[in-house]
Amino acid sequence: MKLIHSFQTRIAGSLFLLMLVVIALVYLTVKAATEASAVRQSYDQLDTGARVFRQELDSRCRRLNDAVRVLAADFGFRDAVASGDVPTLRSVLANHGARVGAGDTYLLDLDGRLIASTVAGHSQEEPLPNVAATSNGDGCVVASVGLPLLRVTVPVRAPLPIAQVVMTFAMDQAMAEEFRSLINLDVVFLGAAPAMASTLPETRRELLVQAQADAPATDAVWQLALDGHLYQVKRLVLGTAEAPVQVYLLRSLDSALAEFGPLLRQLGLIACGALLAALLGALALARNLAQPLRQLSEVSWRIGQGDYLVKIEVPRRDEFGRLAQVLEGMRQGIAEREQQLSHNALHDALTGLPNRVLAEERLRVFMATQPQVSLLYLGLEGFQAINETAGVAGGDHILKVVAERAQALLAGRGCVSRPVGDEFLVQLCRLDVAGAVGLIAQWRALLAEPIEHEGQLFRLNCRVGVAGYPQHGDDPHLLIERARGAMLDAGGMPDRLRVYDQERDAAQQRRLQLVQDLPLAAERGELLLVFQPKVALHHQGGHQAEVLLRWRHAALGMVSPAEFIPLAECSGSMAGLTRWVIRTAIRQLALWQAQGREVKVSLNVSAVDLSDRQLPERVIGWLDEAEVSARQLTFEITESAIMADPEAAIALLKQLSSLGIRLSVDDYGTGHASLAHLKRLPVDELKIDQSFIRELEAGSDDAVIVRSTIEMGHNLGLEVVAEGVEEARALALLRGWGCDVIQGYYISRPVPAAEFEAWMERQDLPVTEALA
Ligand code: C2E
Ligand code: MG
Ligand code: MG
């Protein structure tokens, strides 16, 4: 199929077909011309033959006439005629007739009556068929009862005519054969049917007789097929008008054409030879044309496949050669651009150093060939400031200088690359982590060497993260990530250096998992609330507690809020958690309310919750739904949460406060809430941070702070809560200083609702008495 549609096959096929048509036309034309010529020749031959036939017939008649005249002039014969000696006459006639080859011979008187004849048993009374008839101008041909005859009549003179001698010669087969050998045509004498003398084969004679009816006018030539053989036929009509004699002359066209047979065969051979030559020529030409095309198409295909190294060579001076030159130019252009592109894809355009992709690849090769590889991940410090001072061009210049120096320092013992911005990765072969750390001073010195740009000198410093193969991993990507992570962590180290630490990585993984699972925790039923009782020191009141969130992770177990709350705040899950906590706490209050207990709870609200403008609306909705009073709720907000966006916080807190919800400043003393802000806030309570309470002792700094805070709170009209009360000593001090409410392990750890209920049960006695 492919071969049939190939250019070469098409060209060869077309040329061959063209030659075939031309040669066939030439052959057929020559053949037609040859046949026409054969027909014409045979026509001429017939014409000539007819003329020769007539002449020969005349001359034959004349010769017969002369021969009979010799008999009529013979003295003895005249005597016998005069004497009427019939037997003698009969004998003489027979002898003479036989000598000249006559058929029948008659002697007639001047009135045409028979005197003697060579015909046996012929009587005088019998008529003499044809004998008396006169022949026409053509000579002596007469029709007869059988075959036509040549008839000669000569008078016998003594000296006046006394009788006439008549001799006849049959136009028989022998005569026909004679004429045939003379004029080289088939001859047919047609007598009274069925008599006929013919040189034609037996079968064709009858067919000729049948075809007579279609014969055209005399002397015209017509074509006739006899028994599958083609003849040209000419008809001569001899004798008299009353008794015509028909003579047919036939020329076989088959044999006329056969004469041209060798010529046509030769022509056929020449045509076949020419055709073969044409085929070979067409194949050679097609090959000559298709070869460079095939070459070009193959090369183009390879270029299409991305192989730009294949050279296009067609050593010709024609159009193909020029096309190849043009393509070669294009290929070189593409190859150069491709090379440039692949270089760009793997190198940093600014410094020409390998980029991250190539760095990974190099590391992969080092890992496969070297027993140890160490990575130094350098992060330039304060590069942002350099960019601002020296401009982007200056920054670029400095990075280039660093790259050059780094390469010089490395001296081919590894690979230095620039994965991103102001970070460089140095891969050191055959060196363990300790060895690599030993080299860091050199690298620092390299950076510390001043770099000049437009008259300004810049000195660089860097953070360094170190990781090593094989101890820190065998995945190039991961290992580079680990070195980078160590570099980022190095920012917090005094020597700005950190070696990758697997444990830190595990913590990171744990954080990632927690962040991923946080949004689903409520749905999975992994969240629960615990309640830590709060106790009022100076007045009786209902029970109160702080609601604290717990997360029982399916895989990691109990997760502390100190761990997941900051993660929820920075990953956007906090708002959802807070809603769940408030809603669940309100439901719990409703349950206790149904049991006849009015409990007040404090709920923790994060900084991000303070920007949730729909929070008040939602809370009131849930309170209404559960038929719980807003006065049972206290929202604890840390100082830092308020200070993150004081205006928004104040607006929201005012809204909440207007609903009847109490507000408390949690962890008071650890943040930077200014008194000015506190004054503006609709706060009801200060909750002194447990770090001041846990180890509270009389006369300590904490005691001064706590005592003055209690006083200040009271002066501002706020209730003061102390959390983190672990010991009776702290309780006593707080009570002495007038602290309103306490919370801490000394009273109870945070407990599930059921346990809190049990705790409340135990509080039959007034709280202060119980504690006393
Ligand atoms: P916080 O609001 O200051 O809660 C008090 C924390 O101190 C609780 O820790 C409590 O168990 C602990 N604590 C109470 N008394 C004592 C004591 O006598 N000694 C000691 N050492 N600790 C005591 P927890 O439950 O681990 O909560 C830690 C923090 O997580 C909370 O501090 C709060 O800021 C946050 N948190 C807990 N639940 C939630 C919540 O539902 N929402 C938000 N936004 N934060 C919550
Ligand atoms: Mg709290
Ligand atoms: Mg607190």
Structure explained in plain terms:
The chain has 772 residues and is α+β, with helices and mostly antiparallel strands. The chain folds into 3 domains: 240 residues, PAS domain (Beta-Lactamase), CATH 3.30.450; 132 residues, 2-Layer Sandwich (Alpha-Beta Plaits), CATH 3.30.70; 259 residues, Alpha-Beta Barrel (TIM Barrel). The protein is built from 24 helices and 26 strands. Strand 21, helix 16 and strand 22 form a beta-alpha-beta unit. Helix 2 packs antiparallel against helix 4, helix 7 packs parallel to helix 8 and helix 13 crosses helix 14. The longest helix is centred in the first third of the chain and has 66 residues. It is rod-shaped, with a radius of gyration of 71 Å. The C terminus is likely disordered. Ligand C2E binds next to strand 19, helix 14, strand 21 and strand 23.
Radius of gyration: 71 Å
- SS element count, helices: 24
Ends apart, CA distance between termini: 108 Å
Distinct small-molecule ligands in the complex:
ligand C2E, magnesium ion
Name the CATH class of the largest domain.
Alpha Beta
So, the CATH homologous superfamily of the largest domain? EAL domain
Q: What would the CATH topology of the largest domain be? A: TIM Barrel
Q: Architecture of the largest domain, according to CATH?
A: Alpha-Beta Barrel
Mean pLDDT: 87
Unreliable runs: 131-138, 767-772
What is the number of domains?
3
Main beta sheet strand tally, sense and closure: 8 strands, mixed, barrel
Shape descriptor reads rod-shaped
Helix/strand-derived category reads alpha+beta
